[in-house]
Design a protein that fits this description.
Helices cover about 25% and strands about 25% of the residues. It is built from two helices and six strands. Strands 1-2-3-6-4-5 form a six-stranded mixed beta sheet. β1 and β2 form a beta hairpin.
C-alpha cells in the first residue's frame, strides 16, 4: 500500500468548479499536463466536441489583451453593448465530434476565448490547450457566455 501514488505525487495539476450556465448545471475542469492543458466543459457529464488551440509565435510580446470580466462596466458602448473577442491569432482545430455548424461556431468561439484566458493569465505559456465541450443547447446568450467564462476563470485560480 505504501507504493501507491498520492494526490500530491500526481504529475498533473487539476482543478474543477461547478455552476449554472444557461440554466443547466455545468462542470468545468482544467488538468495541466507537462505538454498540454486539458479543459473540459460538461453539461450532464457529456463531451461531444474536442478542439485544440495552440499558442502562436506572435503571442510573445503581443500587445493584445483579454478584457477581464471585472472591466466590462468600463468598456460598454453607449448602447450598453459589449463585445469581448478572443485573441485574433488563436485558431481552434477540431479533433473529434462537431459537424453541426451552429455548435461548431459556438465551440470554436469558446475554445478561442478559453485559450485567451489561459494565455493572458500566463503570457509565457507555450502548451497547447485541448478543450472538450458537451453543451445541451446549441446556442447561448450573452449571460451564458459570461457565466461560462466566470467558471473557467474560477477554475484557473
Amino acid at each position: 500500500m505504501d507504493d501507491l501514488p498520492t494526490v500530491n505525487d500526481y504529475p498533473a495539476a487539476f482543478n474543477q468548479v461547478s455552476g449554472t450556465v444557461h440554466d443547466v448545471a455545468t462542470d468545468v475542469s482544467i488538468t495541466q499536463f507537462s505538454d498540454k492543458i486539458l479543459v473540459t466543459v460538461t453539461q450532464d457529464g457529456c463531451l461531444a466536441h474536442w478542439l485544440q488551440v495552440s499558442p502562436s509565435q506572435s503571442l510573445t510580446g503581443s500587445t493584445e489583451t483579454y478584457l477581464t470580466l471585472a472591466s466590462i462596466g468600463d468598456d460598454e458602448g453607449e448602447d450598453g453593448s459589449f463585445d469581448p473577442l478572443p485573441m485574433t491569432h488563436l485558431t481552434p482545430v477540431p479533433l473529434l465530434g462537431g459537424h453541426h455548424n451552429e455548435r461548431d461556431q459556438l465551440s470554436n468561439f469558446y475554445a478561442s476565448q478559453i485559450a485567451s484566458l489561459i494565455f493572458t493569465k500566463n503570457p509565457e505559456e507555450r502548451r497547447a490547450i485541448l478543450v472538450g465541450f458537451g453543451f445541451q443547447k446549441s446556442s447561448m446568450n450573452r449571460e451564458a457566455f459570461f457565466d461560462l467564462m466566470e467558471l473557467v476563470t474560477k477554475c484557473l485560480l
